């Protein structure tokens, strides 16, 4: 399995079950939410 596929599986495992509120909450004013990070990574592939 490629490194990228393994990373996807691990990432999915970590975020599965998180609520929409948690995924979309920014930890700070100038920080990204989990969803924003995932969207950014998706655009890179």
Your description of this structure?
The chain is mostly helical and 45 residues long. The chain has one domain. Helix content is 64%, strand content 0%. It is built from three helices and no strands. The chain has helices at 3-15, 20-24, 34-44. 0% of the residues are buried. The mean pLDDT is 92. This is DinB-like domain-containing protein. InterPro entries: DinB/YfiT-like.
Structure in a nutshell:
This is DinB-like domain-containing protein. This protein has 45 residues and is mainly alpha-helical.
Uncertain segments: none
Number of domains: 1
Whole-number mean pLDDT: 92
How far apart, in Å, are the first and last alpha carbons? 17 Å
Count of DSSP-assigned helices? 3
Q: Biggest sheet, open or closed, and with what strands and sense?
A: none
- How many distinct beta strands? 0
Radius of gyration: 12 Å
Order of helices and strands: HHH
Note the overall shape.
globular
Fraction of residues in H or I helices: 55-70%
Task: Give the percentage of residues in beta strands.
Answer: under 5%
Structural class category: mainly alpha
Keywords summarizing the entry:
single chain, 45 residues, mainly alpha, 3 helices, 0% strand, globular
């Amino acid at each position: 399995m490629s490194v990228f596929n393994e990373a996807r599986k691990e990432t999915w495992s970590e975020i599965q079950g998180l609520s929409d509120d948690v995924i979309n909450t920014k930890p700070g004013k100038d920080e990204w939410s989990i969803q924003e990070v995932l969207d950014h990574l998706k655009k890179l592939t």
